[in-house]
Amino acid sequence: MQSRNLRINLGNNCYTIVSCSVMGEGKIENQDNMRIYYDERQIIVVVADGLGSAIYSKEGSSKITSIACSILAESTDLSEFASELQAKWKSDLEGNLNLYDTTIKFIKITKEYVYYGGVGDGWIAFNTTDEFVDMKSSNSFSNQTDTILSFDLQNKFRINTIHTEKMRTALISTDGFSEDIDKENGKPFLSAVSEQLRIDSEAFKEEIEDTLSHWPVETNRDDKTVVFIEREQ
Q1: What is the pLDDT of residue 218?
Q2: What is the pTM of this model?
């Protein structure tokens, strides 16, 4: 299990970040990977879900989160992010790239804007001052997902923005977590998360650790990774 509870100041805001990643029951390694980076200008959260059919996907997902954080930290223009990420990821690996295949999703918070996006399954969601917004896989088949190796990646890799001052609560997760969540009730779900984070973020982290370790849906044995973010002025 990998988990963290962070409080990070950025501009006039303070962010509480609670993250947890748990290996699926019966598996020999966690093919999910998450990375959190921050400095005086930004906060970056990246999660990746290595494909179960790719025997080196743990390395592939670890590599892509590291590369994505490096590119995002230095870039202000994300128009070519997908192609740059794919090219760098490919160049850092050897052999059959399909054996390393992975999805990728990210949130980048700056003082002015929040950028979010990625390719493949998983979930990104926000409660804002105006509405609930989210991003999830658009594939029509449950056994199919786009990945970093998808054909026409530039068009399949989606990136959106919201104003930072509109963001209240956010989550980013791999499919092992999100597939059993009622996304139609995402707004009240994030509202409940927000309340718990404000009361006691450490207790909330322990609760998430327990929930992911004892997942109530017995048929879901996938790795589970989720990061929650709360903005306070």
Answers
A1: 86
A2: 0.95
C-alpha 39: how far from its chain's center? Answer: 19
Mean pLDDT over 45-55 rounds to 92
Residue 35 token pair: 């990375």
Percentage of residues in the chain having pLDDT higher than 70 = 97
- Tell how far CA 92 is from the center of its chain: 22
108-199-197 Cα angle (round to 5): 25
**106 Cβ partners below 8 Å, 6+ apart?**
44, 45, 46, 47, 68, 72, 115, 116, 117, 118, 172
> CB within 8 A of 139, min separation 6: which ones?
121, 145, 146
Q: How confident is the model at residue 141 (pLDDT cuts 50, 70, 90)?
A: very low
Sign of CA dihedral 131, 12, 205, 147: positive
Q: Are 20 and 225 in contact (CB under 8 A)?
A: yes
Q: How far apart are CA 167 and CA 127, in angstroms?
A: 6
- Residues with Cβ within 8 Å of 178's Cβ and at least 6 positions away in sequence, in order, are 121, 122, 123, 136, 226
The per-residue pLDDT for 200 is: 97
How sure is the predictor about 143, in pLDDT bands with cuts at 50, 70 and 90?
low
